[in-house]
Amino acid sequence: MSTPAPAGSVLEVRGLTVRLPASADRAHAVEDVSFSVGKGEILCVVGESGSGKSVTAHTIMGLLPPRQLVPTAGEVFLEGEDLLRKSRAELRRLRGWRMSMIFQEPMTALNPVLPIGKQIEEVLRIHTELDARARIARVIEAMEAVRLPEPQRLLYSYPHQISGGQRQRVMIAAALVLEPALLIADEPTTALDVTTQAQILRLIKQIQAEHDTAVLFITHDFGVVAEVADRVVVMEQGRVVEQGPTAQVLRRPTQPYTRMLVSSVPSLTPAHRDDKQGGAVVLATRKLEKVYGASGLLRRGRRVHAARDVNIEVRRGETLGLVGESGSGKSTVARCIVRLIDPTSGQIRIDDVDIATLGARAMRAHRRRIQIVFQDPYRSLNPRRTVGKSIVEGPMNFGLTAAAAWQRARDLMGLVDLDPRALDRFPHQFSGGQRQRICIARALAMEPDLLIADEAVSALDVSVQAQVLALLDDVRVRFNLAMLFITHDLRVAAQICDRIAVMRQGEVVEYGLAADIFASPGHEYTRELFEAAPGRDWNFGQFETEPAPA
Amino acid sequence: MVLGGALLVLMAAMAAFAPWLFTTDPIQLNPIERLRPPGAEQWFGTDMFGRDIYSRTVYGSRISLAVGLAAAVLSVAIGLLIGLLSGYVRLLDAILMRVMDGLMAIPGILLAIALISLSGASLGTVIIAITIPEIPRVVRLVRAIVLTIREEPYVEAAIAAGTRLPLILIRHVLPNTIAPLIVQATYVCGSAMLTEAILSFLGAGTPPEIPSWGNIMSEGRTYFQISPWIIFFPGVALALTVLGVNVLGDGLRDTLDPRIARKM
Predict the structure, then answer these.
(1) Is the ipTM reported for this complex over the cut 0.95?
(2) A268 to each of A265, A427, A488, A492, A540, how far by Cα in Å?
(3) Is the domain defined by B2-263 classed in CATH 1.10.3720.10?
(4) Lower CB density within 10 Å: C or N end of chain A?
């Protein structure tokens, strides 16, 4: 027997359990999950990947893949009605009208072949009796509410013609046009740049306050939690570990898991670093430029300056952070230095040899000295080859015997905290964090002078991220490496970089010691970035209580 | 897939063991016994020259299977090579792909007839004539795969590790093409058998003295109203074989594609 939901809460989830298919690694995607969201409240569900937070959201919306994920116990009340007992038609009526959802990827959540206005209007056409003229008026109203510029013109624009932030605004407009009681936001700012993210977060808060909407906000980012949440639910492995008001969970967590998660969030205050100005310069770029397009006889079109007049230096034993938003050219610079792409002009000096214009044959001799770790641990290793083969490939290219290469691989596996016996396993048998360790081992196997980490920790969960960062810093010291660390995340940059170069639209706009830049950013854009960093006023991990005795 | 495989095994066994399957000489003329309906003596009947249709059908499977297999292997091998080159060498890409586009613009059968009338009918020319129009499809498939795989970080990591281009192709790119190519090969095989039959039926295929299913049907055409069995039995054999190949191909595609395989 179910008891009716208490008055006042818009969404009430009680003892929700969702079964996973028999082949999964655990029995339930979510187990005995209970929480409620009140009118005008933002509840953040926070957890690492696989914690069941998205499954919870999809269960509420009735969007679970049929037969694969089945709710087996519990109740979900939306304004007093149990959603788990609704027919598909009834759910369809409620979706968009009483509850709606915005997603992580605004590009794929919008239909690319329909004008934006039509996609917002669709909600009205399905749920209301309004005539065409009234619908358009409501759509324009909704677009103004989310502060989209020139709604009259945007009505007829297609998703690819507007920016990512604007697309997310369109999604929000469509979700809120009927003023639903509940808005579910599933990582809505994860795919956005930090400055755009700040705007979208502000927008969600404003609109929510105006309409008293209950918001279920799903995120993995404690900065975002600190920024928007009234209350927090922490999930791990499908279970609720802890819940409570934001300040309480972040400052006085009672559970060790919450403490661990919160204290894994890197601080925005740079860690103390020793002066490394004495080290020899390993990498120096001079007026490095990369222009895309407009080369060749028949390729007319837009020229894009992906990198413009980039002058950076990395010394032995030092980490230079290359910081910027997407499209700032930071990855282009990295790929030029590794010579995965050819720079248009300028010099790349490795120990005073300019490698920018070397041909493939001459370049090969220098390949060993520059190694790179990529962002996506799932695509960085050949899925058909054992990780051992991936690690020994490079050294054997440069004449190391098989026996010596495999011995080096075993040593390195130990160094990156993995079992050397795991060398003959395949990449899919490792977790994301473990794969990233393997990629680091593969790079180190070449005994490089310069290690480039291209967003190497961005795809990892925050607790794993902390470990991989520590490992990178450890190998830098151990092998006295020069490291070029590319990231969009200021928190990460603050913790691992000695010096920082801030990039925008292909140019380095600020370049100096990390401590100095974080203390007093000189360039306007750097200040803007810092302003936008979510949760910048919180010092995560500075708890007001001692850990509970274990 | 099991059904397709079983049908093919049956046909292959028929081709391999043809002389021991109670057959007589498939090209031996026997004017007295001509145009006999199927019966105890001649299981599938005889044609206008008194040749045993059963024996001719069984021996005909040799031609069909040989043509199908050879066309599949040849077109995949050549297509793979051109596809790899055009996916990795940008300079060649534009030229090779335009040639492929040109080939695709000509109807396959027409091209085959033209090639055969230029060089004379023999089993070899038939195979070549059938293979050439199939190559562009394989090239496009391989090139598309190469273009996606070459952007994968693990390939870039191999470049950064100083692995030479040929090794990168063999180690990191080639294995990704195998599963789709096996599937493509089965489709080529099926359509090659059909094309061979069509060519023979039109008189542009294997020389008339070789019993192929197309030839048998072509010869039986004029007697279709009085002795339909001449066309019926080789027709059934052809249909079953092509069906077997296609079912096998579909099955392989589903098993080799991890996304679909997981659902099954």
Answers:
(1) no
(2) 9, 33, 13, 8, 9
(3) yes
(4) N
